[in-house]
Amino acid sequence: DQQVKQNSPSLSVQEGRISILNCDYTNSMFDYFLWYKKYPAEGPTFLISISSIKDKNEDGRFTVFLNKSAKHLSLHIVPSQPGDSAVYFCAASGSADGLTFGKGTHLIIQP
Amino acid sequence: DTAVSQTPKYLVTQMGNDKSIKCEQNLGHDTMYWYKQDSKKFLKIMFSYNNKELIINETVPNRFSPKSPDKAHLNLHINSLELGDSAVYFCASSPGTSGRGGETQYFGPGTRLLVL
């Protein structure tokens, strides 16, 4: 039973355009959400997070939006750069220990 | 200076063997974790360990045991390795004492275990 879902296994975006990665969750106890970026043969690297009391958090080119009523969050990257090509994991935490991860979306930035 | 480090990076071993993976963090964090990424690429929590309190994911076989000699280290011992244990194992740490939500976790580079 997947509590965090990333329904797009991959996404291709042209360099300079906006990348939008989506994530849905089912557990209403989740109160903190994170995005991680992962390159091959490396560990996940923390990118940006958002608490459930907010609906937006911005850090440079990265913005995370949270829609609690829809149990949906998204990561916007603008402008997209070649170095952004990686697998992006959505993760959530709440009453249980540890993070619950989605399956990841492979973002490919095309020149 | 690696914040969360793991050794070894690769581990190839025979079924039935016992092996250990080491994890160290130099961030001064209070809580450490072990995650497993299986062949379907799901990252799943196995354990969290804080101040000698161990929280175990109930789906983890008791062949897996975390051992923490001090706050900066959380090693993973695996007894009687099985083919299905082949996966990438990630160590992580977070600042807080509860090991619960609201904190950012920082991950190590992973240990790729292959059981033959």
Explain what you see.
The complex is a heterodimer of chains A (111) and B (116). By secondary structure, chain A is mainly β. In chain A, the strands form 2 sheets. In chain A, strands 2, 4, 5, 9, 10 and 11 form a 6-stranded mixed beta sheet that branches. In chain A, strands 1-3-8-7-6 form a 5-stranded antiparallel beta sheet, with no helix packed on it. The N and C termini of chain A lie far apart (37 Å). In chain A, a hairpin with a 6-residue loop joins strand 9 and strand 10. The mean pLDDT of chain B is 89. Chain B is globular and about 35 Å long. Chains A and B meet through strand 4, strand 5, strand 9 and strand 10 of A and strand 5 and strand 10 of B.
Brief summary of the model shown:
The complex is a heterodimer of chains A (about 110) and B (about 120). Chain A has strands at about 5, 10-15, 20-25, 30-40, 45-50, 55-60, 60-65, 70-75, 85-95, 100, 105-110.
Tell me, briefly, the overall form of chain B.
globular
Shape call of chain A: globular
Structural class of chain B: mainly beta
The overall strand count of chain A is 11
Q: Indicate the multimeric state.
A: heterodimer
- End-to-end gap of chain A: 37 Å
> In terms of per-residue confidence, which ranges of chain B show pLDDT below 50 for 5 or more consecutive residues?
none
In round numbers, the mean pLDDT of chain B is: 89
**Most extensive interface: pair and counts?**
A-B, 26 and 26 residues
Please provide the ordered H/E string of secondary-structure elements of chain B: EEEEEEEEEEE
Helix percentage of chain B: under 10%
Q: Compute the number of helices of chain A.
A: 0
**Biggest β-sheet strands, sense, barrel of chain B:** 7 strands, mixed
Structure class of chain A: mainly beta
Number of strands of chain B: 11
Task: Give the amount of beta strand of chain B, in percent.
Answer: over 45%
